[in-house]
Amino acid sequence: MNVDAPSSVPAKAIAEAISQIKQVLGDKGWLEEPTDTLKYRTDWRGGTVGEALLVARPDSTEQVSRVVRLCHGAGIAVTAQGGNTGLVLGSIPTEPQPSIVVSLDRMMKIRALDADNFALVAEAGCVIQTLQQAAAEVGRLYPLSLASEGSSTVGGTLSTNAGGNNTIKFGNAREQVLGLEVVLPDGTVFEGLNTLRKNNTGYDLKQLFIGAEGTLGIITAAAMRLMPAPKLRETAMLSVPTPEAAQTLLSRARELSGDTVIAFELMPRRCIDLAMKHIEGIVDPIDTPSPWYVLIEMATSSEIDDLRGKLEAIFGEAMENGLVTDGVIAESETQRAQIWRIREEQAEAGRREGGSISCDVSVPVSRVAEFLAQAREMCERELEGVQLNTFGHMGDGNIHYGIRKPESMSDAAWGQRKGDMSDRISALCAEFGGSFSAEHGIGGLKREDFRRYTPPSRVALMQAIKAAIDPDGVMNPGKIF
Q1: pLDDT tens digits for 231-266?
Q2: What is the model's pTM?
Q3: 3-state secondary structure of 137
Q4: Of 119, 155, 175, 198, which has fewest CB within 10 angstroms of its CB?
Q5: What distance in Å separates the CA atoms of residue 456 and residue 380, rounded to the nearest whole number?
Q6: Which residues, 6 or more positions from 435, have their beta carbon under 8 angstroms from its beta carbon?
Q7: Residue 175's CATH number
C-alpha cells in the first residue's frame, strides 16, 4: 500500500456520497461554498490553502461515524480538524485527491466531570480554555496550558500530542489522557472512554491515536485526568546573563522549591523587543535590559506552603551567585498576565515581523545551553548578519529556534537558504540526541525530516500500523508519511 498515493474514484460515487453526507448532517452541518470553507482550508500561517469538496461539521459521534463510513465507501479522503492552530500543515487537506474536512467545532460538550475521581470527559471540539474553566469551578486543574488555549481543542491537542508551558511538571497532552473515543477509517467507533488509573487489560490502544495527527482515525471524545487546583501561584521574570546561567538556575529552582516549578521559559532580549513592537499593550517588566530572561512560575495546591518565600529564596541565592542580575515578581494577577503575555505573543509577533523560519526542536534539558551556543555559531558562520530569536520551554528542553533574514540579503536569496538552514538545525539536534519536532508534530511539512532522522525500523512499524488500520490511506493523507 502506498499511503501517499491519490485515489482514483468514480465521480458519480463521490457525488452520491457527498449528497448522503449532507443528508446525515442536516442543513446546519455542512459548508460547501469556497468562501464559506476557506478558513477551514487555510493553514494558520496563511501561506497554504487546500481543496475540499465539503466541510462537514457533525454534532455527534454518530454523525462522525456515518460521515466517515460514507467517505470510506466512496474512497474520499478525510482530514479531521480541531482549532486549526497547527504549524506543520497537518490540519488541512493538501493532497491532490477528493477530500473533505471534518471539523469538530460543533462537538463542544463536557459529557461528565467527576471531581472526586479527578477526571472529566469532553468532546473533541471542546476548547482547552473551556476545560480549564470547568475544572476550576470544582476546585480542579486541567494542566495542559498553551498560548493558543483559547482556540485549540481537545481533539487537536491530543492528535498532535501538544506540549505547552507546563510540561516540566505535568507532561505533554499524552500524559493527561485516561481514555479515548475514536472513529476509525471504516466508520467503526473505538469505545475506549474510561477514567480508571489502573486498567491492565492488554494493549494500551488509546496511545495509537495520540500524536497520530488524524492518520489513524478521528478522536471524538476524551477522558482526561485532573489535578488539585493551585491555591498559591507565584510568577517572576528574571534577568539572566547567559543560557548557561538559566540552566543552572532551573536545577536549583526545582530543588529549593520542592519541585513546585510548573513553567520555566527562556527568552532573549529580542523577544521583549518584538513583542513591544508588534503587540499593543506589551510593556517591558524590567527597567534595565538584559541579554536573556527567564519566566518562572511556581504553583502548589497547599494553602500552607510558603511559595513566595521559596521564590524569594531562589531569587536571592541566584543574585548572590551571579545567575540572576535583576528581576520582578508579579504582585497581582494583572501583572502575572502581563508577564506571560510577552511569552505567549511570540508566535504572533514573529508572524507580523515576517522573513523568518522557526524550528520547533528539543534536546536533553541538560544540553540546552550547549545546543544554543553551537547553533548560534553555525548560523552566524553561514549567514552574515543573521538575526536569531530563540525562545521556549527550557524546563523540558523544547526551544523554538527562530532564524530571521539578514537585512542585507534579498528575499530571493533568503528563499534559497531557508530550507538549508532548517535542515542544519535539525541535523544539529540529532547530534545532541534531540528531536526535529518537539511539540508541533510532523504534518505535511516535516515528512522529509521524519524519514531522515527516524530509525528505519520505527518508520516501518508505523507504516505497518497505518496499513493495518487505514489500508486505503484515506485518513489525512500526505501527513507524517
Answers
A1: 999 999 999 999 999 999 999 999 999 999 999 999
A2: 0.92
A3: helix
A4: 198
A5: 33
A6: 361, 362, 429
A7: 3.30.465.10
